[in-house]
């Protein structure tokens, strides 16, 4: 058979197999069996197998092996990279391995003693398998008994089978991701209970059925009393554990009374009883809920939590039609809380006016999206070093046709309840990119626009693609967009969130943590996230500079940021003493009403043209003096990164006569204020040049600022023979240098 006919014959086999309807419907293992058997028969090889790369990329495991002579299938073999480096190197280069004499071929001979000789394998043909363009496995064909020269038709056939498996992998990966998204839409991530959206769909479906039956229906919305105090006192992790325990308690009731159960938001749960035969059952369920919560929740032997709840009920036992039962029960819950915590209220039709008002607002919100009434206002972010506006934060406002500009606290909760936060986020992202383009055309000082991300957006698998499309559409550099995520989101150990942040970071978009210090994020988790900036929450800035507690908290955040090489933004700066304290402690940027309220884009452009805040900076914040082989450096007050660069130029010029010799410095920083991250990085970069010029001892005279002293340690260079010490007085510093061989005598 000539090559053309052979090529057609081989490929017709795989085309016929993969196009069969029954093949597409088979599970993965049966598909692989068919493919491997086809390979063995078409190419007349004894052994055909599929191997998968392990998660650590250090081995391949045999998922399935077909042996032609016995028609057996095997699995679970494993080959390690450290034992077969040549083979792994060859296959990872995405090339076919066509070893006609496998026992002597440099790519495969590592298998000879342990694998090839015992099985009498003489020739091998291996093709790489990919998932989304990444090497993930191998299709291996093994010929026994004699060496074999593989022709071009056989190579092409093996590659096609490997591609078929690659497509199978990609389809399965897509299905898995799609199923995860569906799970997130249907179920609450924390408790595993039904989500509000899925729960609402269930209720709507059940009502249409029960209307044809002679029975009642009831919905119980259960609010946990004073639960925010648990979160504040014990942290998000403990609060989440308690919520899961409460969900388990309610699940017992749901099973006992044949109810559906949901965590509709935060600390609020709901039980839906679609079929209630007797009106008296309504009170029985209430009693069961209250009785179940009377039992304390124990997290360990030392921690006991007593939980109570308030209940709002929507039911048709009085002959009233159930209209939007969740909202009706929520109104009843609100009324019950106003009367007495721990009680319950049954929704009354007299409250329908309030319900209809909410529904009208919902309609207005939906209309506002269509009419582009949600717009961004921008609050300037001021650079500590220069006083110029370097960035802005986009804050949503509702431009209502009759009520004027509506602040976000009045409509964001409703948008969240309606499940429209993702849509609102998309509106804000596009507006920010469009306005960035306009700010750039006006040659402003703006370097980036910050946009807040909602949790719903982080769980959207299309987010990275959406942002990339907007950046391209409006010609915005990736560094021109900064995405803010609240600390609570990174406190969740979620692969989806972690992967989403990695995908966004890979675009070049900057990420920052908003309201830092209010959540309970793990520092180890923060360390491994692609974050470049943290924002100090306004609640800690409010008490500055007088509150000792707020000083301690903010100093801790500043120290953390300096150590992790993160920039800092202080939110809610409203008075000059706050600004000065934050500058003296090395905060990089400021935001607040001291500088400007949030502005519409036209007002922002006017503000940028008229305002160029000049923050106090010393014209000459340092003095230099060289005596013999000791350079004295005195640094005072605020120092900009530009001043640091000038200082290093002056130092290089001053020590020119002793360059190449060993020399030392005495650096007096008792009156220096901690610097920005830009200054910190500038010092680290330029200090290494001085080390090459002979600097090998430094004595620092330090003051009382813990942040300043910590930042000095962070800026200390590392080099063989170099030493640095800190002292409180100049004479101590000189005495140490004398012992080290540097003296003014």
Portion in strands:
15-25%
The CATH superfamily of the largest domain appears as EAL domain
Number of helices: 27
User: For this entry, what is the oligomeric state of its chains?
Assistant: single chain
- Roughly what is the average pLDDT, rounded to an integer? 86
Report on the biggest sheet.
Answer: 8 strands, mixed, barrel
Overall tally of domains: 4
CA distance, first residue to last residue: 98 Å
What gross morphology would you assign? flat
Helix/sheet category: alpha/beta
What is the CATH domain class of the largest domain?
Alpha Beta
**What ranges have pLDDT less than 50 throughout 5 or more consecutive residues?**
none
CATH topology title of the largest domain: TIM Barrel
Compute the number of strand runs. Answer: 28
With strands numbered from the N-terminus, the spatial order across the biggest sheet is 15-16-18-19-20-21-22-23
CATH architecture of the largest domain: Alpha-Beta Barrel
Radius of gyration: 34 Å
* Helix percent band: 40-55%
Features:
single chain; 745 residues; alpha/beta; Alpha-Beta Plaits; TIM Barrel; 4 domains; 7-stranded antiparallel β-sheet; 27 helices; 44% helix; Nucleotide_cyclase; Cyclic-di-GMP_PDE-like; cyclic-guanylate-specific phosphodiesterase activity; GGDEF_dom
Report what the structure shows:
With 745 residues, the protein is an alpha/beta fold. It folds into 4 domains: 3-179, GAF domain (Beta-Lactamase); 196-347, Reverse transcriptase/Diguanylate cyclase domain (Alpha-Beta Plaits, 2-Layer Sandwich), CATH 3.30.70; 371-610, EAL domain (TIM Barrel); 622-739, Transcription Regulator spoIIAA. Helices cover 44% and strands 23% of the residues. The protein contains 27 helices and 28 strands. An 8-stranded mixed beta barrel has the order 15-16-18-19-20-21-22-23, surrounded by 4 helices. Strand 16 (389-400) and strand 17 (404-406) form a beta hairpin. The longest helix is centred in the first third of the chain and has 35 residues, at 152-186. The chain is flat and about 95 Å long. The protein starts with a helix and ends in a 6-residue tail after the last helix. The mean pLDDT is 86.
């Amino acid at each position: 058979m000539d090559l053309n006919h052979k090529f057609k014959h081989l490929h017709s086999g795989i085309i016929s197999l993969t196009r069969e309807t029954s093949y597409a419907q088979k599970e993965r293992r049966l598909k692989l069996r068919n493919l491997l058997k086809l390979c063995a028969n078409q190419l007349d090889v004894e052994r055909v197998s599929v191997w998968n790369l392990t998660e650590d990329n250090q081995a391949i495991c045999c998922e399935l092996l077909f042996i032609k002579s016995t028609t057996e299938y095997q699995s679970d073999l494993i080959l390690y990279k450290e034992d077969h480096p040549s083979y792994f190197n060859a296959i990872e280069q995405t090339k076919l391995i066509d070893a006609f004499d496998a026992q002597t071929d440099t790519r495969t001979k590592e298998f000879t003693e342990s694998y090839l000789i015992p099985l009498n394998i003489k020739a091998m043909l291996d093709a790489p398998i990919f998932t989304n363009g990444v090497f993930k496995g191998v299709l291996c064909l093994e010929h026994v008994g004699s060496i074999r020269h593989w022709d071009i038709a056989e190579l092409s056939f093996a590659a096609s089978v490997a591609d078929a498996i690659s497509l199978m992998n990609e389809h399965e990966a897509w299905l898995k991701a799609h199923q995860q998204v569906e799970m997130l839409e249907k179920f609450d991530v924390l408790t595993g209970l039904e989500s509000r959206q899925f729960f609402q769909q269930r209720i709507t479906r059940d009502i249409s059925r029960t209307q044809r039956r002679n029975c009642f229906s009831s919905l119980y919305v259960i609010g946990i009393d004073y639960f925010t105090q648990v979160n504040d006192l014990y942290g998000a992790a403990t609060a989440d554990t308690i919520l899961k325990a409460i969900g388990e308690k309610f699940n017992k009731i749901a099973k006992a009374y044949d109810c559906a159960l949901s965590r509709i938001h935060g600390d609020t749960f709901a039980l839906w009883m679609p079929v209630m035969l007797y009106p008296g059952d309504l009170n029985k369920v209430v009693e069961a809920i209250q009785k179940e919560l009377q039992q304390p929740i124990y997290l360990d032997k030392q921690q006991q939590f007593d939980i109570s709840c308030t209940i709002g009920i929507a039911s048709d036992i009085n002959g009233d039609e159930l209209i939007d039962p969740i909202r009706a029960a929520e109104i009843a819950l609100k009324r019950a809380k106003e009367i007495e915590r721990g009680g319950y209220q049954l929704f009354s039709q007299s409250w329908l006016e309030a319900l209809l008002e909410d529904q009208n607002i919902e309609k207005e919100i939906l209309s506002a999206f269509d009419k582009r009434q949600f717009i961004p206002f921008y609050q300037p972010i001021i650079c500590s070093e220069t006083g110029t506006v370097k960035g802005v934060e986009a804050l949503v406002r509702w431009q209502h046709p009759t009520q004027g500009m509506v602040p976000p606290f009045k409509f964001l909760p409703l948008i969240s309840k309606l499940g429209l936060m993702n849509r609102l986020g998309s509106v804000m992202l596009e507006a920010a990119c469009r306005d960035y383009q306009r700010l750039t055309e006006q040659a402003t000082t703006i370097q980036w626009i910050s946009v807040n991300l909602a949790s719903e957006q982080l769980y959207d698998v299309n987010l990275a693609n959406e942002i990339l499309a907007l950046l391209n559409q409006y010609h915005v550099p990736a560094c021109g967009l900064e995405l803010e995520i609240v600390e609570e989101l990174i406190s969740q150990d979620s692969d989806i969130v972690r992967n989403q942040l990695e995908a966004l970071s890979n675009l070049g978009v900057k990420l920052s943590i908003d309201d830092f210090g209010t959540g309970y994020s793990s520092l180890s988790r923060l360390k491994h996230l692609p974050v470049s900036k943290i924002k100090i929450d306004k609640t800690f800035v409010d008490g500055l500079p007088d509150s000792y507690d707020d000083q301690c908290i903010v100093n801790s955040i500043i120290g953390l940021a300096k150590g992790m090489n993160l920039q800092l933004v202080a939110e809610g700066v409203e008075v000059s003493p706050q600004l000065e304290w934050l500058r003296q402690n090395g905060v990089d940027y400021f935001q607040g009403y001291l500088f400007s309220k949030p502005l519409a884009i036209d007002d922002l452009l006017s503000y940028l043209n008229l305002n160029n805040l000049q923050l106090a900076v010393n014209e000459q914040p340092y003095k230099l003096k060289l005596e013999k082989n000791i350079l004295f450096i005195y640094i005072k007050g605020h120092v900009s990164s530009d001043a640091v660069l000038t200082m290093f130029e002056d130092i290089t010029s001053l020590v020119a006569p002793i360059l190449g010799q060993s020399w030392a410095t005495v650096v007096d920083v008792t009156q220096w204020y901690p610097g920005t991250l830009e200054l910190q990085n500038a010092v680290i970069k330029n200090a290494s040049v001085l080390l090459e010029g002979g600097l090998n001892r430094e004595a620092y005279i330090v003051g009382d600022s813990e942040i300043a002293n910590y930042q000095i340690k962070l800026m200390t260079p590392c080099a063989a023979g170099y030493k640095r010490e800190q002292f409180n007085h100049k004479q101590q510093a000189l005495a140490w240098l004398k012992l080290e061989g540097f003296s003014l005598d």
